[in-house]
Every structure is written in structure tokens, then in C-alpha cells.
Amino acid sequence: MRYRITLDESSIPAAWYNALADLSNPPAPVIHPGTGKPVGPGDLLPLFPMGLIEQEVSTQKFVPIPEDVRKRYALFRPTPLIRAVFLEQAIGTRSRIYYKYEGGNASGSHKLNTSIPQAYYNKQFGRKRIATETGAGQWGSAMAIAGSFFGIDVKVYMVKVSYQQKPYRRMLMETFGAKVVPSPSEDTGSGRATLAQRPDSPGSLGIAISEAVEDAAGREDTSYALGSVLNHVVLHQTVIGLEARKQMEIAGDYPDVVIGCHGGGSNFGGIALPFLPDKLAGGKRNPRLIAVEPASCPTLTKGVYTFDFGDTGKLTPIVKMYTLGHDFVPEGIHAGGLRYHGASPLVSQLLSEGLIEARAYPQLAVFSAAVAFARAEGLLPAPESAHAVHAAIEEAKKADAEGKEKVILFNLSGHGFFDMAAYDDFLSGKLADHEHSEEKVREALRNLPKVAM
Ligand SMILES: Cc1ncc(COP(=O)(O)O)c(C=O)c1O
After folding, report:
1. How far does residue 237's CA lie from ligand 1's centre (Å)?
2. Tens of pLDDT, residues 348-364
3. What is the reported pTM?
4. What CA–CA distance (Å, rounded) separates 168 from 323?
5. How far is the CA of 391 from the centre of ligand 1 (A)?
6. Who lines ligand 1 at CB under 6 A?
7. Which residue, by CA, sits nearest to atom 15 of ligand 1?
8. Contact yes or no for 61/16 (Cβ under 8 A)
9. How far apart are CA 337 and CA 342, in angstroms?
10. What pLDDT does 453 receive?
């Protein structure tokens, strides 16, 4: 039996898998926030380079990965697939648990899989600067690193609660040459407006996105970059699942369940979507695909599937997605990368069609699972990834209770070495659970945009 299944460089995928090509219903059009009409490529050009806009709307099933991107991928890909034997022993399950580990690169998470192509296409298009937001700091780190690879200046609006909780993330971004400010900041109109309303705002991804979009829209040399949600980001992340498929084959197993944590949908989509064609084929291979989110930000499990802005300041295009409302500000939980009111339109559509499942967990249970995993496997999960760990353990225990033996695959999207304050809070009993009430959901949904579709 192999515990650790590695591939060599020649197995880095040559193309990303585009699930849009396999959907029987086309996704709803993206709406311009000013005109209320579907956006065209020209509307997006102030924010994104043409290469990424083309990928955003592409229905080509496999999109070739440029050689310069593959060369950078080779610094850390293919990533290992690990059979979690010691976790299996620790929880006494009969099921087989595998995890794909995406934390073994300088950014510490899967986010480098998309920041590299994003920097590449911006460079190609002649953009000199990128403005972006970061929740927990992983995306900002990944964008800073990719910016340094391709000689692009990066400005990061970092959600204030994370800026305060995770100073070493800021230092990492600065080491790679990025400029980092806490969001809401005084640097943009939307930041100043938020501060005027609520000077002690902890910030949110929705607010930080407004700031970055405003920054990029106001300068010709600057693009906006998003670390999740958009089709092209999910597309780039499919390298995870494409490799995992090969590795599961080498292991001689096929997953009954594929799990990823869910913030905006990119690492979940990345590991799960390459298994979608099997599901759609309706044969024997029919894995359950499960997205896991925090109970305090239950976008997929308590949100509504409707048109909404991607940001708090209402500057982004309006997309159809599961949402808790664009002005929803989640509790300052430690899984900062999962504090987003919306979701990938692609993942949302699959959920609405019943092709994937979603579930939400409170943070104390998630941290217990993270510690159990760390002690068994010797690897400290990011608080975000720990949601997937918890779901994998639950699935194994459920199978045991039913007298079944399952093959469970999950994505360990990142490591938690910059999250020691979170672990410290957990171990010293300072963490609390925050359930998101139905009333708060209704309140935040009052301000949804009206879209005539
Ligand atoms: C380690 C890690 N996992 C997961 C996420 C959630 O993002 P996504 O849903 O796009 O994968 C983040 C976001 O910052 C992250 O840093």
C-alpha cells in the first residue's frame, strides 16, 4: 500500500477542465451594475485582461495551460495525494480517507494555482499593477508571489480583522513586494464611506473587494484580481482534481465522496469538478461532491439563489449565486477565507441542480477535527481547510455507523502555520460558536438588487 502518491513533473496537467462545457443549462448572464443589462467583454476590460475574460465565458472543455504557467506550477506541482492512515486509525474507521495537500508552496495554499495564470495573462496584456483583496491572507500572499514572478506591482486590501489577527501574513506579502493596507481603508471612496458609517468595522471580503475594484477601475495600468468565485479562477483550480484523479487511479481506489471547504468555491470546485463528468455520465462512478462552509457564514446552506453584487459597495457586476446579501458582515471567525457572502455562480448552479451538496459546521467542532488531524497526520490544517477535515471524519463515522466502507477524498487546501493565534484561542477555550440566525439572513437579503430577467 502506498501512503503518499506523488507524480512527476510530466504529469502536471496540460489543460484546465472547464465544467461550463458540460452543463446542460447555461449559467445566467452576468449583469452590469450600471445598465442592468448583460455585460460584454468590453465592460470587463477595465478590470481584467482579455485572456482571463475569454476564459470567463469559454465553453471549451479543456483550456490549454500556457508553458510559462506550467513552468511556475512545476515549482510545487504535482502536489501529493496522501492516504490518511493515521487519521483512519485514530478515529477507528473502516473507510479509506485520502487528502490532496495544496499547502506545500510558498503561499501555503491552493491560491497560487490561480494567481500565477492571473499574473501571467495580465503581464501578457501589458498591465503593470494589480489591486486585490485578501480575507485570511492566503490569496494576498499568492498574488504577491505571482506578481513578483512576473514583475507586476500588487496592492492588497486586507480585511481588517485578519490584518490584526495575522501580522505575519502581511509581512509575507510585503516580503514579496506587495503593498498591504487594512480594509476598510482611507485609500478609496468605498473604504472611507464604510468607515464613516462604522469606524470600528472589522471589514469583510465584500468591503475589501469594493476597495480593490474601485482602485483598479480608476487606473489604466491596473487590473483587479479575485482569488475565488469567478469561472476563470475555478477553472485554474481544476489542476487539483485532475491530478487527484490520476493519483486515485494509482492508489487503485475511486472516491465515493469528494469534499472541499467553501469560501467562494474555488478549491471545492478545483477538487470536485474533474469528477463531475463521471457523475453526469450516470454510470457506476457517481461520487457525492460536498462543499463545506462555516455555520456563521452559511452561504450555500441558508442563502438564497438569486442575483446579487459580489461586493458591499455595489461596484462589481451582478451575478446569480447563492448569497447572504452583499452587505452581510460575518462574525470575525478565524477561517477568514470562508467569510464571504456569495459563492461561485458555477458551484451555485450545480447546487441548485442537486449535482453537489453543501453543509455548514460551527468552528469549535471544526477546530477539534483540525487538532485530531494534526496529531494523527503531523500536518496543521488552515482553519478553512479544517472544515473539509471535519466533514471527512463525519462521513467516515457515518459509514461506520451504517456498516459501510467508503472511499473519502478531501482537499487540504492549505496549512495553518500562520494561524497559530487561532489554535491558541481554541486550545485556551476562547473560541465560541456563532450560529447565523434566520432573522439575520432575512435582514441582509432586504437590499438585493432588482434584476429584470
Ligand atoms: C486555505 C484556504 N482554503 C480555502 C479558502 C476558501 O476559498 P475558496 O472557496 O475559493 O477555495 C481560502 C481562502 O482564502 C483559503 O485560504
Report:
1. 11
2. 999 999 999 999 999 99
3. 0.97
4. 31
5. 16
6. 109, 135-136, 138-139, 228, 261-268, 337-338, 382, 384-385, 413-414
7. 337
8. no
9. 12
10. 63
